[in-house]
Design goal:
There is one protein chain. With 295 residues, this protein is α/β, with parallel strands linked by helices. It folds into two domains: 2-194, NAD(P)-binding Rossmann-like Domain (Rossmann fold, 3-Layer(aba) Sandwich), CATH 3.40.50.720; 201-286, N-(1-d-carboxylethyl)-l-norvaline Dehydrogenase, domain 2. The chain has helices at residues 2-9, 25-36, 48-67, 73-81, 106-119, 135-139, 173-185, 201-217, 222-232, 239-246, 248-261, 273-279, and strands spanning 18-21, 41-44, 83-86, 97-100, 125-128, 148-152, 162-167, 189-194. β1 (18-21), α2 and β2 (41-44) form a beta-alpha-beta unit. α1 (2-9) crosses α7 (173-185) and α2 (25-36) crosses α3. The termini are far apart. The chain binds nicotinamide-adenine-dinucleotide. Nicotinamide-adenine-dinucleotide is lined by residues 21-27, 44-47, 50, 101-104, 108, 112, 129-131, 152-155, 246-247, 250, 286.
Length: 295
């Protein structure tokens, strides 16, 4: 963390206005956290329904703070007004930093990032919240990869302290410094890591998910596995529930990236339950149906 702070000091880019592209589970959470911690943020999506969900989630979280007496109503209103939802790319011109948080698909991300780079003013820092895709792969279609790095938040954004900042081969120190600075402003604990599929956390987490999926394929009852991991092993949630929180579509995309990156250790398993659920439109908590059903 101290090293990260030193890097922040080396940066001259002041982040006064942020933007997030993709208003899903992560984009909505990033918008909330940024507004809550005092950096106004523009939240862009291609679907009005996603923007409405993102804003709804932010008001719910803020409402809870007011209910618990931790926030005054006027601060809630001020925080909400610091999030500007939009469907229009041109509204992001004033941002000093853009966090891309669209679907975990390299082709979609490359296209979104290339367009953002083309439209954004000189000096804007561009980041991706990708969970697993290598930063150098995403940077390959950019003309200024020095201004780009990974900024990987964890779910739920308002509760998880860690942010992985991923340095691509061509990322400049200035860019890393600005992103570390922004992460610290958001009250997060940034770590700067090297680039590889899954970075640091998902290189640990996805083999764990693979172990769980294999158990299920071999006939284990997923709910019992979760109960043991929660009640006896003592983790806050078991792997099945955690996969529902992450989103089974997203987890399935990540599994594919990890398998391509580590073909011998992380090969895709036959009858992988996450892949089966995702194929059958069971995306986890986001659409109330995954390993578990939600009402
Ligand atoms: P999500 O499915 O909840 O949201 C994705 C959003 O992107 C949707 O609202 C969709 O409308 C929008 N979108 C798609 N194409 C777009 C485009 N061209 N322009 C603007 N918006 C577009 O997904 P999520 O869980 O928020 O994941 C987003 C990213 O964050 C992924 O890269 C994922 O790997 C990463 N991530 C997810 C988690 C998690 O636990 N869910 C954790 C860390 C990182």
């Amino acid at each position: 963390k101290n090293k990260a702070r030193k890097q922040a000091k080396a940066s001259t880019t002041q982040i006064k206005q942020a933007a997030v592209v993709g208003a899903g589970i992560m984009g909505g959470g990033i918008a909330y956290q940024s507004a809550y911690k005092g950096t106004p943020i523009i939240m862009k999506d291609i679907a009005q329904s996603a923007l409405d969900l993102g804003m709804g989630e932010a008001s719910k979280l803020l409402g809870k703070q007011v209910e618990r007496g931790r926030m005054k109503l006027d601060k809630m209103v001020k925080t909400l007004s610091a999030i500007k939802p939009t469907l229009n790319d041109n509204d992001m011109q004033s941002a000093n930093i853009i966090v891309e948080a669209v679907v975990e698909n390299p082709k979609v991300k490359q296209a979104v990032l290339a367009k953002l780079e083309q439209d954004m003013p000189e000096g804007t820092v561009l980041t991706s919240n990708t969970s697993t895709i290598q930063i150098d792969e995403l940077a390959s279609t950019l003309t200024k990869p020095e201004n780009f790095c990974g900024m990987h938040f964890f779910n739920p954004v308002h509760r998880m302290p860690l942010v992985e900042i991923i340095r691509g081969k061509k990322t400049s120190d200035e860019t890393i410094g600005a992103v570390v600075d922004y992460a610290l402003k958001l009250g997060k604990s940034p770590i700067v890591v090297n680039d590889c599929p899954g970075f640091f956390v998902n290189r640990v987490l996805f083999p764990y998910f693979a172990g769980f999926n294999q158990l299920v394929v071999e006939g284990a009852n997923f709910a019992k596995v979760d109960k043991v991991m929660e009640n006896v092993f003592g983790w806050p949630m078991g792997p099945g529930y955690l996969l529902d929180v992450v989103g089974l579509d997203t987890a399935n995309h990540c599994t594919g990236v990890m398998a391509a990156g580590f073909p011998t250790r992380m090969a895709i398993q036959e009858k992988d339950p996450v892949a089966l659920f995702a194929k059958n439109n069971r995306f986890g908590q986001k659409n109330a149906s995954g390993f578990y059903k939600y009402v």
